[in-house]
Amino acid sequence: MGRTVPSFRPALEHEIESWKDFKRALRPEEQKVFDRLMNFARIHADAGSLSARPMLSEILFISFAIEQEKKIIILEKKVNELEEKIKG
Asked: CA-CA distances (angstroms) from residue 69 to 45, 53, 81?
């Protein structure tokens, strides 16, 4: 029997490619940020392939949120450590 749903990674790459006009309209420094965000989605492709979400953009956005939340946690920890050093 043939597959009726394309495998996830090619479908993800197709979704990312569908955003090319949006990316092209961004400033060069914003294009780098855009590429970084898309790489977050690639990092989470294994989880995305198991999620069975009908809209691939949902996978993109939750991947962005996860990676940004991880960065926020790291930064909060660093701020707390610096505050502790300042307090003595």
From this structure: 18, 21, 18
Place of tokens 């790291």: 74
Q: Torsions phi, psi of 54, nearest 5?
A: -70, -25
Could you tell me the pLDDT band of residue 1, with boundaries at 50, 70 and 90?
low
Asked whether the whole model's pTM tops 0.70, one would answer yes
* Cβ proximity of 44 and 66 under 8 Å: yes
Q: Examine residue 19 and state whether it is found in any structural domain, yes or no.
A: yes
Tokens of 44: 């989470």
Domain extent for 67: 8-87
The structural domain count of the chain equals 1
